[in-house]
Amino acid sequence: MMVDQFETVIGLEVHVELATESKLFCACPNQFGAPPNTQVCPVCLGLPGTLPVVNRRAVEMLVLAGRATGCAIAEFSKFDRKNYFYPDMPKNYQISQYDLPLASGGHIDLEGKRVGITRIHLEEDTGKSTHMGASGRLGGSDFTLVDYNRAGVPLLEIVSEPDMRSPDEAHDYMVALRDILRWIGVSDCKMEQGSLRCDANVSIRPPGSEKLETRTEIKNMNSFKSVRAAIASEVERQTAIRREGGRIIQETRGWDEARGVTISMRSKEEAQDYRYFPDPDLLPLTIPRERIAEVDRSLPELPAARARRYQQSFGLSGGEAGLLVQSLALSEFFEQTLARGADPKAACNWLNNEVARLAGEAGHGVEESKLTPTALAEVIAQVSGGTVSNRGGRTMVEHLFKQGGDPAALVRELGLAQVSDRDGLLVEVRAVIDEQPTAVSEYRSGKEKALNSLVGQVMKRTRGKANPELVKQLLLEALG
Ligand SMILES: [Zn+2]
């Protein structure tokens, strides 16, 4: 029977570079962007006679990431050698974990959906090959350069269950995973710098089927947007083949961003091709139960839980709360502003609008700016108390963000105080009534709009500093 509609089945393998000081098995610095081959030593170059020593912090970070995603942590685990030849891997094997990963059986909750996490294991990164020549690919290149700075950098491999059913769900899973990993401080998760990488396993099947069909693995997706686009394009390709009665071949395909299609790279390896065996140079890892309990106690409230709390306690929308929990620093800034007496809704609006705009321009978060929670709380108080206008508040926030300082002094220096002095404003109100007989008679004959134009005239005479509410009130009294 020919089927026209198919269900999409997606599982993701995510690689995350850990933000440790040093590499996984040696003391070389783990730092992005250094000149090529300056962060290497005999261990990470795989020279004969060297021995690896496990980085304790990397193991701790895996346990933290595992517990933050609801995984069980194995008390006994080990490292294995994954054997294959490639010039960017100096030992000709990669130290990884095969049948006894450190963490397994977790999940990530998306809006109305739970995605299972099969396992999280620890492994070392490879070096980086750059193919020189017009194509930028191996085929047709003139020569290839290899940089071993990245060889031996600690990686988490996070494997999901094939639980996602659309490119959007895969995208949302990636975002949620990134938010959690950044939140607990184990990685900066920058896709464009390669500290967060993703391969997608994609297959399609007739609706209602529980069978996992032949899948393809998609690589080279360098942004959250390309994860969505590459999977959508691959689903389209597979659907077209199946509709014509064709078969899907198990293979690895690369995402070609410019052309918007996936391209066959090679037939997919099976696990047995890698001849895994336990690494004889490394002792098994044992993690005492008490240590896992300690990690549990140290886990902060996670972003999804915190966003729910903001919605329930402060009446924020899902979108507003989601923006505040994009980073731990921003969310802490928000809470500290509230602790200084600011109204939650107002603090949220300032942070998600004016402060977010300034942060975008500056290319860093509010925590690296000169603005403090105390100063923001004071600006909010000045605006809600009518001392400065909303526009004046924006001017203050921009100054405080860039230069810092004392908000009260800033109001004086920049002449932002709203004029709320009745007698002074009354003089202006009377002058406007004298100058604008047409608007006055229009208002008296019932044209409500004429009042706004009179308020505007007073604002103009006071160069925008008058308190508009008070001006309106004085005009009404004078025209009464
Ligand atoms: Zn090294």
Radius of gyration, taken over Cα atoms and rounded to an integer in Å: 30 Å
Shape: elongated
Helix content: 25-40%
Percentage of residues in DSSP E strands = 15-25%
Low-confidence stretches: none
- How far the N terminus sits from the C terminus, by CA atoms, comes to 83 Å
- Class by alpha and beta content: alpha+beta
Bound molecules: zinc ion
What count of domains describes the coordinates? 3
Average pLDDT taken over every residue: 92
So how many helices?
15
Largest sheet: 9 strands, mixed
- The total beta strand count reads 16
- Placed side by side, the strands forming the largest sheet appear as 2-6-7-10-1-11-12-13-14
Question: Can you offer a commentary on this structure?
Answer:
By secondary structure, the protein is an alpha+beta fold. 40% of the residues lie in helices and 19% in strands. The strands form 4 sheets. It has a 9-stranded mixed β-sheet with strand order 2-6-7-10-1-11-12-13-14. A hairpin with a 2-residue loop joins strand 6 and strand 7. The protein has 3 domains: 7-291, no CATH class; 301-413, no CATH class; 422-479, Orthogonal Bundle (Arc Repressor Mutant, subunit A), CATH 1.10.10.410. The site of zinc ion has 8 residues, from loops.
